[in-house]
Amino acid sequence: MKTRSLLLASLCLASITAGARAAEGPASVGMSVGSLGNPFFVATAQGAKAEAKKLNPTAQVTAVSADYDLNKQATEIDNFIAAGDKLILLNAVDQVAIMPAVKRAQASG
Fold it and tell me: Could you tell me where the DSSP H helices lie in 56-98?
């Protein structure tokens, strides 16, 4: 399940990256993963930062760890919304239960 979610996030980033090459990339990106104590997620965050910088050299990327806590992850998404992040990358702790937070992000633009 986690691998599938991460693969989905990677595919979303790749499609966004491909589509955004013609335009400047987002100025700020938020990323929430299961745990930044996991080397896989650390490498994923580094890759996301590198790709964002290719699109917009001044892009600010904030990668945070949800520590596999749904409430913490929902708060992180709300913080990304409040910060005005235009792209949120997500490795969902619970892909069904996180939907209200994802819908809030979508509604905020």
Answer: 70-83
